[in-house]
Amino acid sequence: MLSNPGEEMDLLPLDHPRLKKNNFDLLRLLLALTVCLVHATELSGFEALRSVTGFLSSRIAVQAFFVVSGFLIVMSYERSSSLLSYTSKRIRRIYPAYFTVVLLSALGLALVSTQPLPEYFSLSWVKYLLANLTFLNFIQSTLPGVFEANRLPAVNGALWTLKVEVMFYVSVPLLVFCLRRAPRLPLLLLVYALSVGYATFLLGAAAQTGNAFYEQLARQLPGQLCFFVAGAGLFYYLPLFERRVKLFVTLAALVLLIDHWTPLPWLQPMALAVIVLFFGLFLYAGNFGKYGDFSYGVYILHFPLIQLLLNAGWSAEHPWLFLATAVSLTFFGAVLMWNLVEKRFLLRSSHYVSSVETSQKASPVKQPARI
After folding, report:
1. Which has the closest alpha carbon to 135: 182, 170, 187?
2. Inside any domain, residue 260
3. DSSP character for 157?
4. Cβ within 8 Å of residue 318, ≥6 positions away
5. CB atoms within 10 A of CB 208
6. Into how many domains does the chain fold?
7. Which of 249, 364, 281 lies closest to 68, judged by CA?
8. What is any one GO biological process for this UniProt entry (predicted)?
9. pLDDT score recorded for residue 361
10. d(CA 256, CA 264)
11. Rounded to whole angstroms, how far apart are CA atoms 119 and 113?
12. Which residue stretches of the chain have pLDDT < 50?
């Protein structure tokens, strides 16, 4: 699957050594745990945990997730033998666990609802189930009588990113189709610039009008597309990135440092992509994939589990025990989700299946990363 003949860097880096030994599994788990820690702090409102949000950012973690997706999903499409193969891999990877979490929440939370069962299983319940199963979480984010006493009544406020992620999946075939027929770099830069411009305009409108709705729109597509495209661009130009990695990382670190005090919205997404993919592709930390991929489970399970702990009346007297309990329960649930649901739907060619087989054979070579 080659792009424009004669264009510089035309040969895709599908067999690049760094795609066989990388840190993406570990990186995504750390990003998911970051979101879990921040949400536990924000949902609880425990003052003693305020320091967590001082050095961790769920916003940056989500943006980093989109960068990694841009790199790996475009690579997955370029590796796929057909559109059907690509679609099958994406559905197998994301939907079984997602369906399980939504269904468990809809059914299991009847036990903690303040409403009688006839009122609980009402039209609102059906609306929640249908909206969330189709990634339209914003239509109905609550269940009758559930978490009404919590600071936020939403059942699973982290699921909004899955809608964006699915839209990325849908857009990849069109994006790659265009990249194969137009000059690659100018097109990537154009999409990147349009995405940043869209988000910048809406954030400016939110600041001027005080209307938070504009800020919410900026978090959706195409506002988040710049992070995805930045990751995709570094996939296509991976050999160049590797040759100039010190320069790229130095400039990216400088941009992010300045952005901390003076926002640089046109440069921040690319700078973040460089740093994220540097840690994903360099400084190899071992074959973490042999244990499985718990990051997705952590991400889609942590919010309702935190809400359940708070609903049980956890007080602010033991904030750090609350945080440790929330993280432990989430990780345990993610391990169960992986072993009982997620890996059962993967193809034998999946990175995680092959990683386990490779580990059992005591081979040091890791198979190409896929998600």
Report:
1. 170
2. yes
3. G
4. none
5. 9
6. 1
7. 281
8. polysaccharide biosynthetic process
9. 53
10. 8
11. 10
12. 1-9, 360, 362-371
